[in-house]
């Protein structure tokens, strides 16, 4: 059995402790500086306050000051921080680990480069630590933390450069309910699952559109039209990134699950109802939404590609409209004619 | 303004009268022999008994005996019959029309050929009437009849051999809420939207799985995994048919809308709960389900391709499992390991 250290004890990082402990591994859950209360309470009672679940028996808890101890003899490091914690993670964790320790990141997102590129977190980490060749892998796919903790069937993809390493990680983490496929196309997997956040916001505009009429019927045709347009644009972005277009199935599954709940749906619905972006965001009381950040970053990338004449605006009307709504305060007015190409 | 004759006054055929009359055309709605009561009631009161909507003012109603009159000077014939009416349609309608009258079919489905092929209804019609060169077009895309009649934004694709004809049809039928894209890939469009019926049944197995536990939480991760697998297999079928893989966006949108309701969801849910196929179908009281028929036909096609060594069973585990459930009475046991390729 192996020793698996999870850094970042938010909902997703903690949920990964379920398949890991079910496989009989020693699992050490380390809170980031933001997770202090979660670790204190879980250590005392086993209860995870945001995941709202009892964590597995035998799980070991560490505050961030105990990171070094938590990493002793570890066979795998799982990065469970959110996209807002990536700089903290490489500066405070990746910077000090042994380069032979495989890292599996569950953080979803993409980053702009100064040259107009669009890179995944594993690429970013390696760029930040150019003198240290790390073994960086990542998890993509439609998997909410609650349902993973409830051991519902979930299918994800582990991606990384080395298939042999990925196969080892699958052996460590795969269970009868956590189904893992493998891919060497890190950009394809990571961009497909990051983009779903933007497009979930787009599809839920139609949810809000329906809610404008009190007790009115849902607008599934409109949602489906936006879903189709989302898949079309995602395919075009994968192409721009020279990623494997077969990752579209990951984007579709992840988009499907993201539409059903959470803050992205709430914001999309409020915008669809006619609220301004500023007003809709006020209901989040200062929480920064990953879907908004990724929409803006993707728009930066696409607008740069357009400037460089590598892409055409007409191919991304939904993405650019979403960016107009959130970055320029424009009202929702879906450009239906532009979807027909 | 044009004269548009719709034959088949079921829900979808009748719903198409909304954009057509909104554009100011003369619209003639002709009931098939199965639609007699619908036409009688609609003629008397304007009410469509299955669509549960008042039909547009000015719509003209015809029983099937009046077909010839309904076709006088028509500019467009819309075929609104279901997939079970295609033979009736070519024998009784297509057989006698002028070959210069464009035909736009909204019937969804695909058919097996004796040689192991898999063809769309437009192809089938032309094969049945080899001596008569018809102008055959078809509608694909996520569009429920109720919502079209409610004038919700809906996006569909008109497909056919001749882009100039398709553009004319778009001019006739497109409105501010009925958005039409055009495609010359009839097989791609028609197969993409037919396959969604099979896979909607597959995804809703997970709905039933969740319902096994009374008041239990939904299993969105599992639905999303099956959604992703569905898109993966749909892409492979498009490839086998040498169709344009970009039609995957149509399949995704249509799959999304089909999951939300109707009899396919009901059957998928009952199967997922653990009911046998025979018992689940008994709740439909003898109604034949299009999703069951298309699943069986697609399985016939895929099994023939496997026999001819043009495809591998391992690439279609979900489709073949659905076929095992409905054609061989097997219990639901999702082949998760086979999904990971």
Features:
homodimer, 341 residues, alpha/beta, 8-stranded mixed beta sheet, 16 helices, globular
* Helix segment tally of chain A: 16
Mean pLDDT of chain A: 95
State the assembly state of the protein chains: homodimer
Question: Which structural class do you get from the secondary structure elements of chain A?
Answer: alpha/beta
Fraction of helical residues of chain A: 40-55%
Shape of chain A: globular
Estimated radius of gyration of chain A: 20 Å
Largest interface: A-B, 51 and 51 residues
What can you tell me about this protein's structure?
- Two copies of one chain form a homodimer.
- In chain A, 49% of the residues lie in helices and 14% in strands.
- Chain A is built from 16 helices and twelve strands.
- The mean pLDDT of chain A is 95.
- At the A-B interface, helix 7, strand 12, helix 10, helix 11 and helix 16 of A face helix 7, strand 12, helix 10, helix 11 and helix 16 of B.
In short:
Chain A is of the alpha/beta class and 341 residues long. Chain A is built from 16 helices and twelve strands. In chain A, the strands form three sheets. The first copy, chain A, has an eight-stranded mixed beta sheet with strand order 5-2-1-6-7-10-11-12, sandwiched between helices.
Secondary-structure topology with pairs:
Two copies of one chain form a homodimer.
Chain A: E1 3-7, H1 11-15, H2 17-22, E2 26-30, H3 36-45, E3 47-48, E4 53-54, E5 60-62, H4 67-71, E6 76-79, H5 86-92, E7 103-105, E8 110-112, E9 118-120, H6 121-128, E10 136-140, H7 145-149, E11 154-160, H8 163-173, E12 178-183, H9 186-211, H10 220-240, H11 248-259, H12 262-273, H13 277-282, H14 290-307, H15 317-328, H16 336-339
